[in-house]
Structures are given as structure tokens and as C-alpha cells.
Design brief:
Blueprint lengths: L1 E2 L17 E4 L2 E6 L3 E6 H12 L5 E6 L4 E5 L3 E5 L15 E5 L2 H16 L5 E11 L6 H8 L4 E6 L5 E6 L2 E6 L2 E5 L1 E6 L4 H13 L1 H18 L3 E5 L5 E4 L3 E5 L2 E5 L6 H8 L7 E2 L1 H11 L10 E6 L4 E5 L3 E4 L3 E10 L5 H19 L8
Parallel strand pairs: 1-7
Antiparallel strand pairs: 2-3, 2-10, 3-7, 4-6, 5-6, 5-20, 8-9, 9-19, 9-23, 10-11, 11-22, 12-13, 12-21, 13-18, 14-17, 15-18, 16-17, 20-21, 22-23
Helix pairs in contact: 1-6, 2-8, 3-8
Length: about 375
């Protein structure tokens, strides 16, 4: 495999249909050229990847859908560069035509139906998502969208089937493997940030003491811990979550670390064991999937799936595909979800999803009127 020349501009050489961009605190990956692994299932990907990579000793990068279907590229060229500096300011955009699916009232009705399922004892948590579709008369510039996202958590852009692009900046790491070291950083429990520093601090403190949010977070951590114990020794699970933040949200966060029992275990094996966690699906998983299928108004596709990379040695990083959108030539479809547990209030869950749209809306320079 040839290496791209590392440039000061992380988007130098980026090609919309032939590149994957994945930036994490460890560094920035840019690929170009491809042969596509189409239609493969995550459950078997670790076993199939060595043959797909062949003798190149390279890597595969791309996205995995919520339902576990992979769409990865094996590039002819790739380059790593240093972690990215602070993000660039957004480019102001023109007028957008917009549509929310479902409409806010319908989303709150779905939350109430989900709460009825919880009260009946059918499940402990379910995540319900909604979308915001924006349309512009002008072609959408992926470079203008990506620059403000770079440097925030795990930012990514990867081609999807049909010619669209999955782009976003996720705060949540499903799993990373580097040698025998394993890291997972589940997030669950959220609060909108405030421009007022005093109010912002109050909201953060309230989140850290919220029985409802701590319960939601504990469900996710317990599930991730149980699944990682199958593969890891010396698993370190903090007793209590910490606060982490993005520009728009506070989150409860737990960093789980471990040492692989078998050094041959691929990061894709770990990803298959973990995905989807209760942070994006719910628990019990089968019941949550049923409720999602009955109550969500749109197909998730690659939203709440994974974006990342894996190399021939089994190392890699896979972020949860949240705070993201699918970009077509003239349209952007944004996704956001909220975890519904006992004590959830429909109006608050709607407000949470609206706040989560902000990551991409701000990067687009779309402004407040995009949600009018």
C-alpha cells in the first residue's frame, strides 16, 4: 500500500466517493482509492478481513450500519497525521428547506408509547430516534461541513451505498484495540449545555446526581462490561461515571479498559460483541429492537452504527455513529436519539434530540431557523 503525503491540511487529498476520513485523539487517518467490502455482516468480518486485505498488510475503513452490515473500503493509499487542532469556524450558509420526521408531536407520542412498554415490564430502556432533513438549492460542500467537525471527539466522513456520505463528530467510542490494550467509552445520560456559565455548571452538577440518568448510564456500563469480560483480563471499570462535554451537551461517561486474554482477538470481534449497546438500542436488546421497529418513523441505516478502521493486525478504533448526518448532493439528513427509561418526560426527550442536532447544524452554519 502506498502512503499519501501527510499535509498540513487534513482534508488535502480527500475525495468524496473514494476516501475515508477518521480523526481521533490518537491521530487522523485519510484514505484514497478503494475496493469495497459490500454486504458483509459485522459478525463474520473479523474472519473475512485477512483474505480481503490480501498481502497488502493494510487496513479497511468505513461504516457499519445499526443492523450490522459493513460498508468498508480497502484503500490503495492511506496516511496518518497528528491529532487535529481546534476545529475551524463554520461557513455561513444560505436558506434551507427543512422537514422533521416524525414531527415533534408524533415523536413525543412515540415516547409515551415506549414508556407504556416500560411500565408493562417489557423492557428497561429503549432509544428512540428522529431525523431532520435539510435541502439547499446549492450543492452541499462536504469540506465546508467537515472542517468545523474536525478536532471534536471522533470525527469522520465515509462513503455509503448509493453515493451518499456519512459524516459527523461522535463523542462516544465503542471500542479501540492497540496491541492487547482495549478501551471502551460508553456514554448515556445527557443534559443540554447553557451559554450562561453558572447555569451550565448547575446543569452539569444536576446530571451527575440525577437518579434517572445514573440508572440509564448503569444499564449501558453493565452491558459493555459483561460483553468485554469474555475477551479481557484486568478489566478496569470505574465505580461511578464522570462528566464529559461537547459544545452542546453534557454526558455521563465511563472509560472501561482491559487487556486482551488472546492477543489474536481483533477489534472487529470486540465490536461485534458490543454492538449495539444499550446506549443506542436499549435493553433487553430484542425487546428494544422490537419497539424501535414499531415506533420509529424512519430507517436508521448507518445512524447509531459504527465508523472507524481496522488493520491486518487487528488493531483499530470504532466510534458510535451519533451526532452525524447522511449527505447527498443537495440534502443533509441529520439524526438524533434519546434514551427512554422510567422517569423520562416526552417534552424533555424531544428537547434533548433537538440539542443533539446542533453539532451538525452548527457545522453547516444553518442557524436556529433550521428548526423553525
Amino acid at each position: 500500500m502506498e502512503s499519501l503525503t501527510t499535509a498540513a491540511d487534513p482534508l488535502a487529498g480527500y475525495e468524496r466517493t473514494r476516501s475515508v476520513l477518521f480523526a481521533s485523539p490518537r491521530g487522523t487517518l485519510l484514505t484514497r482509492g478503494r475496493s469495497t467490502i459490500a454486504g458483509g455482516e459485522l459478525a463474520t468480518l473479523a474472519d473475512r478481513l485477512p483474505a480481503l486485505l490480501g498481502q497488502s498488510g493494510g487496513l479497511a475503513a468505513g461504516a457499519i450500519s445499526f443492523d450490522g452490515t459493513a460498508h468498508l473500503l480497502v484503500p490503495s493509499e492511506s496516511a496518518w497525521s497528528a491529532p487535529l487542532p481546534a476545529a475551524a469556524p463554520p461557513v455561513p450558509s444560505g436558506r434551507w428547506w427543512r422537514r422533521q420526521t416524525p414531527a415533534p408531536a408524533a415523536y413525543m407520542r412515540a415516547v409515551r408509547l415506549a414508556l407504556a412498554e416500560l411500565e408493562a415490564g417489557n423492557l428497561d430502556k429503549v432509544v428512540l430516534a428522529r431525523t431532520l432533513e435539510l435541502r439547499s438549492d446549492e450543492p452541499i460542500s462536504l469540506r465546508h461541513l467537515l472542517r468545523p467537525l474536525l478536532g471534536h471527539g471522533y470525527s469522520f466522513a465515509t462513503p455509503l451505498p448509493g453515493g451518499s456520505t456519512l459524516a459527523g463528530a461522535s463523542p462516544e467510542l465503542l471500542v479501540a484495540r492497540h496491541g492487547r490494550q482495549v478501551l471502551s467509552n460508553p456514554l448515556a445520560g445527557s443534559a443540554e449545555r447553557s451559554a450562561d456559565p453558572v447555569e451550565d455548571a448547575r446543569r452539569a452538577a444536576a446530571l451527575l446526581e440525577s437518579a434517572k440518568d445514573l440508572h440509564e448510564h448503569r444499564l449501558v456500563v453493565e452491558a459493555v462490561t459483561e460483553r468485554l469480560r469474555r475477551y479481557c483480563d484486568d478489566l478496569d471499570v470505574p465505580k461511578a461515571p464522570q462528566l464529559t462535554s461537547t459544545a452542546t451537551m453534557w454526558h455521563l461517561s465511563t472509560k472501561i479498559t482491559g487487556i486482551l486474554r488472546d492477543p489474536a482477538t481483533s477489534v472487529l470481534t470486540l465490536a461485534a460483541a458490543l454492538h449495539p449497546t444499550p446506549a443506542v438500542c436499549g435493553t433487553p436488546q430484542a425487546a428494544a429492537r422490537r419497539v424501535i421497529g414499531e415506533l420509529e418513523a424512519v430507517e436508521r441505516g448507518f445512524y447509531s452504527g459504527l465508523a472507524g478502521w481496522c488493520d491486518a493486525a487487528g488493531d483499530g478504533e470504532w466510534a458510535v455513529a451519533i451526532r452525524c448526518c447522511e449527505v447527498h448532493e443537495h440534502t443533509v439528513r441529520l439524526f438524533a436519539g434519546a434514551g427512554i427509561v422510567a422517569g423520562s418526560v416526552p417534552e424533555r426527550e424531544l428537547a434533548e434530540t433537538t440539542s443533539k442536532f446542533r453539532t451538525v447544524l452548527d457545522a453547516l452554519g444553518a442557524g436556529n431557523d433550521a428548526l423553525d
